[in-house]
Amino acid sequence: MKLTTGFFFLVFLVLPLTCCLAADMTIVTEENPPFNYTENGKLTGATTAVVREITRRLGVAGDIQVMPWTRGYKLLTSEPNVVLFTTALTRKREPLFQWVGPLYTVRLGFYARKSDARRIDSLEAAKQVGAIATYKDDFREQLLTSLGFSNLDSSKSPQSNLRKLMSGRVDLWFYDNIGPYQVAREAGIDPDEIEEVFTYEQHFSYIAISKPTSPMIVQQWQATLDDMKADGTFWWLTRKWLPPETLMVSERQPPTGRPFPLKLYTEDSPPSSYEEKGRIKGLSTEIVQEILRRIGQPDTISLVPWARGYKLAQSDAGTALFSTTRLPQREALFSWVGPLYRQRWGFYRWKGSGVDVPDIEAAKKVARIGTYNQDAKMQYLQALGFENLVPTNKNITNVTHLKRGHIDLWVSSDFNLPHLASQAGVSADQLELAYAFLNVGNYISFSKSTSPHVVRLWQAVLDEMKSDGSYQRICSKYNYAPQ
Predict the structure, then answer these.
(1) DSSP per position, 193-229
(2) Which numeric CATH code is attached to 105-203?
(3) What is the pTM for the complete model shown?
(4) What CATH architecture does domain 262-483 belong to?
């Protein structure tokens, strides 16, 4: 078989990427809370979560080895394909390794016992104290050594540093502003018994990769991290452990990667979503707003007629629509996150009208059934062969039409009906269920072009909300009991 030049060029482009993705990486970390530490026998922490998500997206083996920092640092300096985290980028280290980040901005400072009246106001004053606790071969110890400190007391763990400080064996402890609470907890010490007495500087934390490693691997790691920052995954993973002001979701000042251009649409359909005093509210709206808050994304929700939103969610890239009923005929059209809530569909009549609907077939013989234009109930009934549907672009007009006898039945749900009736100035008691025909779930529907990582993140955050009780609290505001 004859192979063209173009084919060889394509193979040339594809092979390096495949090889890099298949490369075995030695991934190493230390016990350094809250970035990476063991809890209940499992490695966890902010950077641990980030690294695991990077390796998951790249499809590479992500087994992480925990070892003393000195041993991990030695591997990083001597072997190819070694990843070490969480690593501070310093002037001395910068040419030694390749870097993926930044992850966080961290403030370095000297800590003392609150009961110790002695205070320092400069590096020179710190050099004059008896002893300063430092973590062996850690960048903080390396930094003080480079600054000419000769009074360092080195230990193999931050917990040992803190115990020495509290016992009076050292005068100061040199550490950062993020870790002391966790270190104190693990050491059995009240963190309120220590305080920062002098701030030295801020630095940036990174993932370090050994120098002999292929630059393409490093580029892939960096691109994946940038994608995670853009789609909100980085923010969501790390803010569980770290103060928001420390998270480097941008490279110094300019943004890393373009923000994910997600457009969010909903409809006027209380209590799921509706406009009140110029603000979009509702059960589904508040759930989506909380997801946006947790992933650090802006609120870009627009209220539009359902037919328009449904069309945009199918035709426009990076679009989500809520709340969308998940039906078999819609399954392949979207990617789904949910459920947000569940509801029962039925045919409703004006009380005392005498319209009798014992089953679906009987409903097909009714003269006029009011529906909301192109919503799930209308599409469902059209698929069943209904030819007596009377659509409207504003659902509450169906209530008025039913009251005036312009339609014989109205297709609605137990979830929406009380609120729509109230909006139309009608008591829900004036309407009655003639026949219920389907139980359904309502979801956030994402356009098929949306990154699967974004969809996965949104589902994970919604699941988190259901686990921590925040979802239930939102539901209770709207008198909805999750099923």
Answers:
(1) GEEEEEEEEEEEEEEEEETTS-HHHHHHHHHHHHHHH
(2) 3.40.190.10
(3) 0.74
(4) 3-Layer(aba) Sandwich (3.40)
